[in-house]
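Researcher: Please predict.
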Amino acid sequence: MAALSTALVPLRSTTGGALIAATVLATAVCFLDASVVNVAIPAIGQSLHASVSDVQWVLTGFLLTVGGLLLLAGALADCFGRRRILSAGLAVMVVGSIFCALAPSVHVLIVARVVQGAGAALVVPTSLALLNGTLNVGDRARGIGVWAGLATIATTVGPYVGGWLVDHASWRWVFLLNLPLIAAALLLLRHVPENADRRPLTTDVVGALLAVVGLVGVIYALTEGAASGWGGANVIGALVLGVVALASLVPVERRVREPMLRLSLFSSRQFDAINATTLLFYGALAAAGYLIVIELQLELGYSASGAGAALIPSSVVFLVLSPLSGALVVRVGPRWPMVAGILTASAAFAWLSQAHAGAGYVEAILPGVLLYGLALGLSVTPLTAAVLAAVDDSDLGEASAVNDDASRVGAAVAVALVPLLIGATGGKTLEQALATGFEPAMIAVAALTAAAALVAGLFVVDERVAVRTLPPLPLHHACALPTSEEP
């Protein structure tokens, strides 16, 4: 198909403003649905009489669906139009959110979270691609900076607002928090021109199915095994099925003319190292974020809103440092800022592991939270720059999608392992397990973070980063990484 001809627009225009606002709101919705549920988990478990395994699936069901469908969603956006697919994804999230709020049981809630995840999978790779492909080339770096800064505000205030709703209304209102944002985004998208490559849709159905079955099988086995034991036929069967499906993905993708995932990307040791770092680091971030929030509520006696507010200083530090980190990457390359940031996160988690009942916020929590914000400010930008520098310009879009998928799969796996890390087995509740399991679990997360720093230090290099942090060539399956795109 021929490429769709779309006139590029300046950032400082009515259309540019609508574009920025719509993509910020869409991204904020995904941030909220992925993170704000953490503060509601204790209330959900109590209200719906949910087991530890059920509670885990409320979190991992969303993450896993996004990760499993991400690459396919990028292909849909390229084929049918980015604005169209972004609007469809937001509409699906509306349906999922309403069903979450009305769920009469935890199992219905899990299914509704999967629906939410399917919508988010359409939104995640499309919002930034639409932004990149519509703005003038000279405005893209500035537009991405505005987009990133404003979208991050959702992670700052979202958990606090969600916690306030849990405390003063019901956990069900948490799932309706995104509806005004979605409505505003859909209205703004009416003023944004369509943008797409109009590429033929991939026919790699087998590859897509193997990826989804493999991820679901492995995550299901980890979640159920940690909760009910590793010897069950369902756990063993799911694990075998998942491993076989993922192992089969490689030979299948080699034989497909237009594969969903081009294996040639992984011929670069740099690219492999960055994705291994991403898998470990973002997995640790997800597990730590979940552990800290439930520890604050169940052990330290914080309200849901108090637990959300406790982490706000980290977002403030991150927002302040991010622009400075970008300048540092241009001067010295991504490797050592990335390593320093990830090691700082490890130190933050080690500090926070000492937070126990009776500990004061200023001495026990705040220093770790500030270190956490410093770690994010140092590491996120260089990690982005390094993954872009690892591949040719023609591969930027798919490389971004793979890296974003690595972060989400890492998060899903790590969150699935939380019950095992804290010892929530044999019928123990989260509260019972946290009393003795929080400290060793956080130490394990700190060790996982240090392993990510080791991989980055040994295998990530600084070549060509200064000139390719914002490359000017096509992006096809964009994710939450600052690349630029030409139509």
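Model: The two ends are 14 Å apart (CA to CA).
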